[in-house]
Write a structure and sequence with these properties.
Structural class: alpha/beta
Number of domains: 2
Helix content: 25-40%
Radius of gyration: 23 Å
CATH superfamily of the largest domain: SPOUT methyltransferase, trefoil knot domain
Oligomer: single chain
Strand content: 15-25%
Number of helices: 9
Bound molecules: S-adenosylmethionine
Length: 244
């Protein structure tokens, strides 16, 4: 997977992503980060990339030309990839569709993705209309810039790419995969602060363990995210269990 990230703060993303599992995936070249500093495409001697909004109001806006020049340069450098295909460019914005696991799975099918990180009050609308294909938010709150948001997206997408997670870290059963939250986990020691591990997990009986986990998953989702239960396609037995 090739990620092309247009940002004013490439060092923030480089430091944030070059550790742990994603850092290893970069080392193994399962994913490639191409960090493009938009400021390198400013065409004035002070490398200025922002200006006051027309119509007045607080804050500054990112100007369209440096972003467009940076975008054109990357498209040109990778022209074999984009010869018959418009680049898929995600603009991170609180005004976008809220990112979720289903979207991560869909993005993970691509072989290359572009991301535009806004800053200040945002970005001139005209360049967004020209280059953006997807408007994505990471939640209903406002960040100072798109850099943390792109790191969230890249982390969630990359761990779905084959080879990025080892078997130990597999995505086999996780929250959201079947529309429910995952069951609780326990490891050694057997007793901690007077609390012991549920007996069924020591029974060695896989059918019983799976049944217990499914029930815990249902109960947890009901308690913490009732909105997910409403959308999940539950079997008759599962519905009966929840009614008890
Ligand atoms: N004025 C904009 C608005 O009200 O929609 C908010 C601008 S915000 C201060 C600056 C930048 O941070 C945005 O351009 C966007 O790239 C990023 N950002 C802020 N909140 C975000 C969120 N919830 N999800 C994704 N990106 C976000």
């Amino acid at each position: 997977m090739n990620y092309h990230i247009f940002t004013l703060f490439p060092e923030m993303i480089e430091q944030g992503l070059n550790t742990s599992i994603i850092g290893k995936a970069i080392e193994k070249e399962l994913i490639r980060l191409n960090l493009i500093n938009i400021r390198d495409y400013a065409n004035n001697k002070h490398n200025k990339v922002d200006d006051y909004p027309y119509g007045g109001g607080a804050g500054m806006l990112m100007q369209p030309e440096p972003i467009y020049s940076a975008y054109k340069a990357v498209v040109h450098q990778h022209k074999e990839t984009y010869v018959n295909k418009k680049p898929r460019m995600v603009y991170l914005t609180p005004q976008g569709k809220t990112f979720n696991q289903e979207m991560a799975e869909e993005f993970a099918k691509e072989s290359s993705l572009m991301f535009l990180c806004g800053h200040y009050e945002g970005v001139d609308e005209r360049v967004l209309e020209e280059v953006v294909t997807d408007y994505v938010s990471i939640g209903d709150y406002v960040l100072t810039g798109g850099e943390l948001a792109v790191m969230v997206m890249i982390d969630a997408i990359s761990r779905l790419i084959p080879g990025v997670l080892s078997n130990k870290e597999s995505t086999e059963y996780e929250s959201f995969q079947d529309g429910l939250l995952e069951y609780p986990h326990y490891t050694r020691p057997y007793e901690f602060l007077g609390k012991t591990v549920p007996d069924v997990l020591l029974s060695g009986h896989h059918a019983h363990i799976n049944k217990w986990r499914k029930e815990q998953s249902l109960l947890r989702t009901c308690e913490r995210r009732p909105d997910l239960i409403e959308k999940a396609s539950l079997s008759e037995d599962e519905k009966k269990f929840l009614k008890k």
